[in-house]
């Protein structure tokens, strides 16, 4: 495929242009937004007006947006509320977050209230939301704000970055939405919108592309309404410019979208020398060719690492990530883990059934087995359970104890399956089961 090449040196694509020429198609979409050229400034102004007009008429009513728009709310409370919402929204759908956010703000309405809370109560409220390390970071952040900032929430990007767990995106989101700082944001939705808007065909997770996207976001952000503009970009990605089946016909930026123009473009491509052209363009996919992502490798290791983040600091049943689908192999591995890692000698393992659970964007099927320990008393259990690989060990007397403890929704499903299959009613059991925390 061939496109006419250009030797553009615009600052917006400076790092790309230095490495190689870029085609005329991309040059036209990466003009220097800081330039005084009237035509370019008009184009940026047009994008701002279209997005904000669409946002004003189409935005979803969300509790944190209501807080941000209330003139009666003080800056400190606004910053705290937006911070909580942004952390909850990481890797989690908006519809799921709403109830958690409302209950959180009801339990800890101010940063001072949160700083005095304990992690167990926070984890109980967070249960089911996934990525539990976020909850711990929120508590650590609140303690830092109260102890080191005199309870005053930072209002600048630099100040916000000093809070535990706050990265560039969260700092810019809170600064722009709560404090009207003119800074752009780049999250998953914005990556999708901007890579399609500019037809960026390079791996969207690469440092070069991320730096470019942040540059574009900062150039586009409306200086008068930065918070609303950033939310409009994210809203567009969540509702119109979706990963699958985007609604291009009703998109407010359809006339500016390079990926949409590319579908009917008569230009030919010369991808060998253009640093931004997509390498494997599928015309049937259209705008869904973007963003470009590298194929994932080492899936099992990635899943295991993700689960460590999903279930951090929560109790769970002894579990293994199965490397072999055969039942005998799984049973042997379970026996080994219980014996060698936990020091538990089992008289038998009984297969109970399967439990399916959706962790945010990961689907997981648990094959559940019950274990009968040879230990007759609690004191006979191996000391390995209270040391080594296990941060803490918990014994439960009733099902109510389990349900009120810091365990994930998936583990509660496993317990319900066990109770259903158990011969004895749960309340009459001396001990339901044992848990250990993940690292």
Top keywords for this entry?
Endonuclease III, domain 1, disordered C terminus, globular, mainly alpha, disordered N terminus, three-stranded antiparallel sheet, 7 strands, about 450 residues, 2 domains, two-stranded antiparallel ribbon, Nucleoside Triphosphate Pyrophosphohydrolase, oxidized purine DNA binding, single chain
Ordered list of secondary-structure elements with their pairings:
Layout: E1 5-6, H1 14-19, E2 22-23, H2 24-29, H3 38-58, H4 63-69, H5 75-89, H6 94-107, H7 111-115, H8 119-126, H9 133-148, H10 157-160, H11 168-179, H12 188-198, H13 207-220, H14 226-239, H15 258-264, H16 299-310, E3 315-316, H17 327-341, E4 346-359, E5 362-373, E6 393-395, H18 399-403, H19 409-421, E7 434-437
Antiparallel strand pairs: 1-2, 3-7, 4-5, 6-7
Helix pairs in contact: 3-14, 4-5, 5-6, 5-11, 11-14, 12-13, 12-14
Characterise this structure.
- GO terms for molecular function: 4 iron, 4 sulfur cluster binding; 8-oxo-7,8-dihydroguanine DNA N-glycosylase activity; adenine/guanine mispair binding; metal ion binding; oxidized purine DNA binding; purine-specific mismatch base pair DNA N-glycosylase activity.
- It comes from Lepeophtheirus salmonis.
- One of its GO terms (biological process) is mismatch repair.
- With 439 residues, the chain is mainly alpha-helical.
- It has 2 domains: 5-289, Hypothetical protein, domain 2 (Endonuclease III, domain 1, Orthogonal Bundle); 299-437, Alpha-Beta Complex (Nucleoside Triphosphate Pyrophosphohydrolase), CATH 3.90.79.
- 47% of the residues lie in helices and 9% in strands.
- A hairpin with a 2-residue loop joins strand 4 (346-359) and strand 5.
- Helix 3 packs across helix 14, helix 11 (168-179) crosses helix 14 (226-239) and helix 12 packs across helix 13 (207-220).
């Amino acid at each position: 495929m061939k496109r006419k090449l250009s030797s553009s040196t615009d600052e917006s694509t400076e790092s790309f242009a230095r490495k190689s020429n870029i085609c005329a198609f991309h040059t036209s979409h990466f003009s220097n937004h800081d330039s005084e050229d009237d035509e370019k400034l008009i184009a940026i102004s047009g994008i701002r007006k279209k997005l904000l007009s669409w946002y004003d008429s189409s935005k979803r009513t969300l509790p944190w947006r209501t807080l941000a728009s209330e003139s009666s709310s003080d800056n400190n409370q606004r910053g705290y509320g937006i911070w909580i919402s942004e952390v909850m929204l990481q890797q989690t759908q908006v519809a799921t977050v709403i109830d958690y956010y409302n209950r959180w703000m009801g339990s800890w309405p101010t940063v001072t209230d949160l700083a005095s809370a304990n992690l167990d109560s926070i984890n109980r409220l967070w249960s089911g939301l996934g990525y539990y390390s976020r909850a711990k970071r929120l508590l650590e952040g609140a303690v830092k704000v109260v102890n080191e900032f005199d309870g005053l929430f930072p209002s600048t990007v630099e100040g916000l970055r000093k809070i535990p767990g706050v990265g560039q995106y969260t700092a810019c989101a809170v600064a722009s939405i709560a404090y009207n700082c003119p800074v752009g944001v780049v999250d998953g939705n914005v990556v999708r919108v901007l890579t399609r808007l500019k037809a960026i065909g390079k791996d969207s997770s690469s440092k070069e592309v991320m730096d470019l996207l942040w540059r574009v976001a900062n150039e586009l952000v409306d200086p008068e309404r930065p918070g609303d503009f950033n939310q409009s970009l994210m809203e567009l990605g969540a509702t119109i410019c979706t990963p699958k089946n985007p609604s291009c016909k009703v998109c407010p930026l359809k006339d500016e979208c390079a990926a949409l123009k590319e579908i009917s473009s008569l230009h030919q491509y010369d991808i060998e020398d253009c640093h931004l052209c997509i390498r494997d363009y599928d015309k049937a996919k259209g705008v869904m060719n973007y963003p470009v992502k590298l194929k994932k490798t080492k899936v099992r290791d990635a899943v295991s690492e993700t689960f460590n983040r999903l279930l951090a600091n929560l109790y769970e049943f002894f579990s293994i990530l199965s490397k072999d689908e055969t039942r005998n192999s799984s049973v042997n591995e379970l026996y080994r883990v219980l014996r060698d890692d936990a020091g538990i000698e089992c008289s038998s393992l009984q297969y109970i059934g399967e439990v399916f659970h959706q962790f945010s964007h990961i689907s997981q099927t648990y094959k559940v087995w019950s274990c009968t320990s040879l230990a007759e008393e609690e004191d006979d259990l191996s000391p390995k359970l209270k040391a080594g690989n296990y941060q803490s060990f918990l014994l439960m007397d009733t099902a109510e104890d389990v349900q009120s403890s810091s365990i994930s929704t998936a583990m509660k499903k496993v317990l319900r399956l066990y109770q259903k299959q158990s011969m004895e009613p749960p309340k009459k059991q001396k001990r339901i089961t044992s848990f250990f925390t993940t690292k």
